[in-house]
Amino acid sequence: MDVRDEDLVARFLAGESPAFEELVRRHERRVYNIALRMTGRDEDARDAAQDAFLTALRKLSSFRGEAAFTTWLHRVTVNACYDLLRKRGRSPVAELPPDAGPPAPDPADAAAAGVDVRRALLTVPEEFRAVLVMHDVQDLPYDQIAEALDIPIGTVKSRLHRGRVAMARALGPGEHAAPPGASERQP
Questions:
Q1: 20 to 30 A Cα–Cα from 52, which one of 38, 68, 82, 179?
Q2: DSSP secondary structure, 126-174, as one string
Q3: Which of 26-35, 52-61, 132-141, 148-157 has the lowest mean pLDDT?
Q4: CB 39 within 8 Å of CB 85
């Protein structure tokens, strides 16, 4: 029988320590993936994910259950990423080697395009990047993103648009210039 996250929270608050361990097990990959896309570095992502779970542990009693636990945890994770980036006093930096491939078409071009997208994502301002990651990568609906970030739905939509424009600008001209989720327009 699969226990709901909210029930695990209640169990933990009632003194059942393994309940929090189960929450971590269920959500550690998602938290890490959000942190990696927000910070751009594996080491920073691990630090931010750890900070997010420590914050969740300390503040679990503030989880009111008005939103899904995953929504609350997304917000905790994004805040942990913002804190880490502020503490380090830097913008995220991609730790990826420069592309140096042959001029002929290569099956690795698809992988290189993925690297380009990750690099471009790291150039997008943090508030736009958070919305892009939550919507286009984690596939969360507008209302959950708004709730997780404590912003209006209209702000989610405008940040998503601005983030996609920034991504397109960072990717530059070419076949990969369309931002994620954007539809192509015919003249």
A1: 179
A2: HHHHHHHIIIIIT---HHHHHHHHT--HHHHHHHHHHHHHHHHHHH-SS
A3: 132-141
A4: yes
Amino acid, single-letter form, for residue 14: A
Q: Which of 128, 129, 116, 131 is nearest to 172 (CA)?
A: 116
Q: What is the pLDDT of residues 67-87, one digit of tens each?
A: 889 989 999 999 999 899 888
Measured distance CA(77)–CA(130) in Å, rounded: 10
Spatial separation of the C-alpha atoms in residues 48 and 34, rounded to whole Å: 9
Q: Which two tokens stand for residue 43?
A: 């080491």
Q: Which domains does the chain have, with CATH numbers?
A: 1-91 (1.10.1740.10), 109-182 (1.10.10.10)
